[in-house]
């Protein structure tokens, strides 16, 4: 008998997929297959390619096939917390996409397709918690981009073409090995960003990691009350990103 090629994961049937369709707050159709133990992209969902949103987050996917291009109506794509090492070039055909979350994967700069710069309507892009050592200057073509997450990579610089995007308001580049500790603040000042950009919602974190994040946030709030600051910065309490403590336990937090 042949040897096992690793965990098979849960098999998603068309019936399961149809029952996983939800109506989003703006009336769109969302196919939610998050936290399902999926190891391979379920081909059956290609029959549901007319959905507006697709959530495959917190699974064990290693690859997204080029057939993703069939989802031409897609406006919202969440692939965070998988095992992705690359993205298909076909992702650049999703011209209606305005939200793309590929945080907490195994993506390298070399395996980021150049076709990402074709997503002209993209407004939110999360590349945090990957293995990126640089950011392609071609992302400067995303003129509608308003928020970008680059935290917890191995970046030493951020290209001017990205920093100077005309509509960019929020950028999180925390915990990257920038050569100068002031460099990151310069990035912040250049686009007048908030102190931290949160791109992962509470519901997307496991209970232990969520508690850790909340505890750390409470500690920070106490420090703020003790040490006066010259000016108040806006906070986003409904959003959450893995903090440094969660990063220490990343192998437990990351789905295998």
UniProtKB/TrEMBL annotation:
Q: Which SMART domains match?
A: LRR_TYP
User: Disulfide bond: present as a keyword of the record?
Assistant: no
- Per the record, which residues fall in region Disordered? 223-256
Q: Which UniProt keywords apply?
A: Leucine-rich repeat, Repeat
Alphabetical list of InterPro entries matching this protein:
Leu-rich_rpt, Leu-rich_rpt_typical-subtyp, LRR_dom_sf, LRR_domain-containing, LRR_R13L4/SHOC2-like
Instruction: Pinpoint the Disease resistance R13L4/SHOC-2-like LRR domain residues.
Output: 68-197
**Gene3D superfamilies from the UniProt entry:** Ribonuclease Inhibitor
Q: Any keyword Ribonucleoprotein? A: no
Task: Tell me which GO cellular component terms the UniProt record holds.
Answer: cytoplasm
Source organism's superkingdom? Eukaryota
Pfam families in UniProt: LRR_14 (PF23598)
Q: Which PANTHER family match?
A: LEUCINE-RICH REPEAT-CONTAINING PROTEIN 18-LIKE, PTHR48051
Instruction: Spell out the protein name for this chain.
Output: LRC18 protein
Q: Which organism is it from?
A: Cochlearius cochlearius
